[in-house]
Amino acid sequence: MTGFHQATRLQGVRYDVRGKNMVEAQAMEARGEHILKLNIGNLAPFGFATPDSVVRSVATHLPESEGYSDARGVPSARAAVAEYYQSKHLDVDPQQVLIGNGVSELISLTLSAILNHGDEVLVPAPDYPLWTAQITLCDGKAVHYLCDETRGWNPDPDDIAAHITARTKAIVLINPNNPTGAVYSADTVRAIVQLAREHDLIVLSDEIYEKIIYHGTHTYTAHETGDDVLCLTYSGLSKAYRACGFRAGWVVFTGSLQRAHNLLEGVDLLANMRMCANVPAQYAIEACLSGYQSIDELTAPGGRFEEQLRLSHDLLDQIPGVNCVPAAGALYLFPQLDPERYPITDDEDWALGLLREKKILISHGRGFNWPNPDHFRLVALPEDAVLREALGRLAEYCEETRRD
Ligand code: PLP
């Protein structure tokens, strides 16, 4: 008898940021070892609790949450999302909003509705790897454009233009960016949108870190796409509202909707097939967007999180051969290990060594579809004392693996 095998469509789908190193960390923890985790942007376990008022709003609405909601979401949540974007001077009606179980579900759902076999999608390198994985799963092809470390990790529009072919259907922007911490300049966003306009591409704009900004300002891609470019803007409660576990997010459809009837029917079909998003969590959306707006500790200049990012950057800066662009937004740093001094051929193995020898878990750069084994991502969520300990051990490991 033959064994049971995974479907062939999974071939080529990679999600290494939750791959073998994470499995090893779990096994080590099961043996009683204590791991310092700098690998995941999951806020609540690090003392960035979901605001009480948001938790209460879910609890209050539990009795109303027994049935399925409309597949596109509860009316109050859709209205709150529309009003939020209206307050940012974007012309959004609740009909243009779809609520989902986090941005992740909506990325999967919308790409499934958009892509045909062989369709190409331009994706940043490095990226949030769900984008590449889901495009591959939908039988499309992720074509990576490089973000330029020497320009604060802004994408290079010329490099994007060079990758456009007759099969290119869409372009993904992640702004503010995971894993680099970049906040794209308005000029960069405009230049990318202009390419989309010229080549009739759908713009897929992942703005989940929109409110977590330390330097610069956020440019809403939908502002730039106007009426003539189809734009899907994704955001949700996981990051700014520290509610990863609630699984609540939205996608907003703007721009040339009159040309997108058929596509939107496909989105509705897929939304109906999964009934609806988790109803209690949908009620948290209104609480967040129309009530609780102060996200003090996270985004306030000089607040706990910015201080931790700065500390992490300073400590990394002291390690010979480690170069790190300061983060302007989001929760991450994406430092480079100078290839002259760190002759790494497999960055996942290098990170595994760090885990086994120093009990520190980070994410290797190629897990984010970065082409070379010379970067890693660090999440600056633990408190100062833990960061100092973790980065001290990282410095030791760097010294042990460095060629001087
Ligand atoms: N997009 C980006 C850029 C992210 O970093 C994440 C999570 O880390 C997501 C989407 C997924 O968010 P959600 O928790 O809403 O599924």
TrEMBL record:
InterPro entries per UniProt: Ala_Aminotransferase, Aminotransferase_I/II_large, PyrdxlP-dep_Trfase, PyrdxlP-dep_Trfase_major, PyrdxlP-dep_Trfase_small
GO molecular function: L-alanine:2-oxoglutarate aminotransferase activity; pyridoxal phosphate binding
Pfam families associated with the record: Aminotran_1_2
Cofactors named for this entry: pyridoxal 5'-phosphate
Matches recorded under SUPFAM superfamilies: PLP-dependent transferases (SSF53383)
Keywords: Aminotransferase, Pyridoxal phosphate, Transferase
Name the record gives this protein: alanine transaminase
Source domain of life: Bacteria
Annotated ranges, domain Aminotransferase class I/classII large: 34-394
EC class (word): transferase
Family as reported in the entry's similarity comment: Belongs to the class-I pyridoxal-phosphate-dependent aminotransferase family.
